[in-house]
Amino acid sequence: METSGKILIVDDEIGIHRGVQRALEPQGYSIETATTIEEGLQKIRQAKFDLVLLDVMLPDGRGIDLVAPAHADDPNLVIVIITGYATVELAVDAIKQGAYDFIAKPFSADMLLLTVRQGMEKRQLLLEAQRLQAIEQEAALLTIEKESAEKLSEFKSTFTLMIAHELRSPVSAAQSLLRTLIHGLAGTVSEKQGEILTRIDARMDELMALINDLLDLASSKTLADEPSLTSMSLQAALQASIDRFCIQAEHKNITISYHIPETPLEILATPDSLERILGNLISNAIKYTLEGGSVEVSMQLVADEVEICVADSGIGIPQAALKKLGEEFYRAENAKQSGITGTGLGLSIVKQNIDYLRGRMQIHSVEGQGTTFRVYFPLAKT
Ligand SMILES: Nc1ncnc2c1ncn2[C@@H]1O[C@H](COP(=O)(O)OP(=O)(O)O)[C@@H](O)[C@H]1O
Ligand SMILES: [Mg+2]
Question: Which atom of ligand 1 is nearest to the CA of 315?
Answer without folding.
Answer: 4
